[in-house]
Amino acid sequence: MKKSKKPRARKRLLKRPFDPAPIHPQHLYRWADGERFFGYSQTEIVQKIKAGQIPTPFPLTDGGRAKAWTGQQILDWQAERIAKAAAKAQA
After folding, report:
1. When you count CB atoms within 10 A of the terminal residue's CB, does the N or C end of the chain come out lower?
2. Contact of 57 with 69, CB cutoff 8 Å
């Protein structure tokens, strides 16, 4: 006689825990952190990088698999988005 399995409760898994610390211009932020900083899914980030709307991350290794942005790249992108929103609001 088989025992019936109890359904397991699913836990919501976060890729990375939320970090309220400010972005440091000289730190490197990995690809997995992109969703948190840019506000888009990984797929949308790839599309926006190809369209030139998000800065291209640079490879951290010779193989190029690990990629990151500098904090300054992220801060510049965010400032640009804020400036565009402010200009649109004034128009």
Report:
1. N
2. yes
- The full DSSP string for 14-54 is PSS----SPPPTTSEEEGGGHHHHH-S-HHHHHHHHHTTSS
Dihedral sign, Cα of residue 39, residue 33, residue 47, residue 41: negative
**Tokens encoding 18:** 């939320």
Rounded to two decimals, the pTM is 0.73
Where exactly are the structural domains of the chain? 28-90
Distance CA 53, CA 31 (A): 16
Dist CA 69 CA 36 (whole Å): 13
**Neighbouring C-beta atoms of residue 12, cutoff 10 Å:** 4
CA distance 79 to 73: 10
Summarize pLDDT for 42-60 with one digit per residue, the tens.
999 999 999 999 999 999 9
CB 60 within 8 A of CB 68: yes
